[in-house]
Amino acid sequence: MKVQLGLGVALLAALVGAACGSEAPAPQSSTSGQPVHINVGIGGPDPIFSPLFIADQKGWFKQQHLDVNIALTGAETIPNFIADQVDIAVYSLNAAQTIASRGIGVSVIYGAGGAAASAFVGGRRGINSITDCKTFSTYQKGSAVYAYANMYRSLYKANYTVAPLTQLTVIGSQIATGQVDCGNSTYVAFSPFLASGQIKLLADPEAKIGLPSGWVNALGSVVIGKPDYLKAHRSAIVGFLKAYTQAENFMLDRANVDQIAIMLTHSPIFAASTPASLQLAVQHSLFNMAPCGAYVSEATWPDQLAFLAQSGQVSSGTQYSYSKMVDMSFYDAAVDGQSFPGTKQQYAQHRSCRT
């Protein structure tokens, strides 16, 4: 594997750009000749992407006859995807919608993680419920973080003013210093302020505390590709998902948290993080990995579109239909119903699973 560094941003933001497309490469086989090279773009140095690094360091991509290059494309993920500078991306569902809105073909082939990583709600001292919040910091419009700010306000019938920021990392400090009453972000972003008692958790999706009726863990990160590319490289993509799924299983075993944190330190993408901080981040990412066994079902697609609407994105129109934006045939070919998540009965249940 080769790793490229680019501009990193928060994982769950759907950041937009523009670029021209190019012709899809010729079909390749993952079972003969040279290993198939796949460029994968990711949104930021976040543990939600750990399966990529696990699969590489465990040699599982090589076992599938693949040479996988992970590029930290950040804010350039969408334009790079459109311009075929990355073959597939592990990025937000919001980004997939943005691509589709431009008339570019895009297929979601795997539900890598839920959006609930950004659904932790913190309150300053003296705030005991989301209904007490009058001001509420969140991330910018068009992101899953923004969608949860609106979801909580609606479900709690709260009367707070949403203040979107361009930096997800400052939300915790704004709450802790009393600049705002409340806000939503990740557990890791809040953790130092929780330890000091400056922030109290009002909603905790990991512990399932403070989640009102109607709350959903929508899709956050998904594996996406252009339909023509996916079709031309079908066996390679199936092999990629086999290795990715194997790595998801490894990650979901809590006994492996310390080992995964060390693996991530071997990548320059995580150079700014300490093993201890990565251990904490991985530990609090597990609840959010592979919702519904990573299967994106037609039954839940209306919920996904409604969530996109709460983030401020247009989600109505045939270009956003399940048949246009989702192709689970690669998942079906990669996952035999035995290896992940365990039994054929559970595997079948994913088609109607609701998180």
Give a nutshell description of this structure.
The protein is an alpha/beta fold and 355 residues long. The protein is built from 15 helices and eleven strands.
Would you kindly provide a written description of the structure presented here, covering whatever features stand out?
By secondary structure, the chain is of the alpha/beta class. The protein folds into 2 domains: 2-114 and 218-352, D-Maltodextrin-Binding Protein, domain 2 (3-Layer(aba) Sandwich), CATH 3.40.190; 120-203, D-Maltodextrin-Binding Protein, domain 2. The protein contains 15 helices and 11 strands. Strands 1-3-2-4-11-5 form a 6-stranded mixed β-sheet. α5 links the parallel β7 and β8 (161-165). It starts with a strand and ends in a 6-residue tail after the last helix.
